[in-house]
Amino acid sequence: DSGVTQTPKHLITATGQRVTLRCSPRSGDLSVYWYQQSLDQGLQFLIQYYNGEERAKGNILERFSAQQFPDLHSELNLSSLELGDSALYFCASSPELGNTEAFFGQGTRLTVV
Amino acid sequence: DQQVKQNSPSLSVQEGRISILNCDYTNSMFDYFLWYKKYPAEGPTFLISISSIKDKNEDGRFTVFLNKSAKHLSLHIVPSQPGDSAVYFCAASGATGRRALTFGSGTRLQVQP
Description:
The complex is a heterodimer.
Chain A: E1 5-7, E2 10-13, E3 19-24, E4 31-37, E5 43-50, E6 53-57, E7 64-68, E8 74-78, E9 87-94, E10 103-104, E11 108-112
Parallel strand pairs in A: 2-11
Antiparallel strand pairs in A: 1-3, 3-8, 4-5, 4-9, 5-6, 7-8, 9-10, 9-11
Chain B: E1 4-5, E2 10-14, E3 19-25, E4 30-38, E5 45-51, E6 56-59, E7 62-67, E8 72-77, E9 86-94, E10 102-103, E11 107-112
């Protein structure tokens, strides 16, 4: 158990809908990262938050947004969903800005039908 | 353009033998490299890392070698055990690990009993 909790584990939704993925980092970790893993691909960095503030952006679509709350949990919002958004979405956390040895959650498997 | 490449999608070795997983990168700004192991239905788990100031780092059965001039790193597992069967991801970061991780597409290792 990495200490990073992601909910839900599975999500099936229709095209055009909006979903919210939730991540609770390890206790004390200030940095949260979101990654997307499409079928048989590596993990693609989406966005990083540190202590409530956005710190870095990767290849995140404009239809996607995220935030980190005062209690340090984070949510990833995906809207106007398309079939191609079906993927595993991972959250990771680390104590500081650096993500060396970041700890990953089990992921949320999103299926868009 | 893939900045971190794992050209072997799969590798099969006999128990007790050496497993060698390879990774190439193109971005000269990368200065910190990590290997993650992933079992099905779980998030990636940190395995071992190496800074660009070193060319080797060892942790038990796992050794990572870095060849900066060739922009190549490898993970050696000796001896390989059936429990090592998983997908292995190579990842790289800049600014001594303060940048988000860039992942390869993974190599599926199968260790045959």
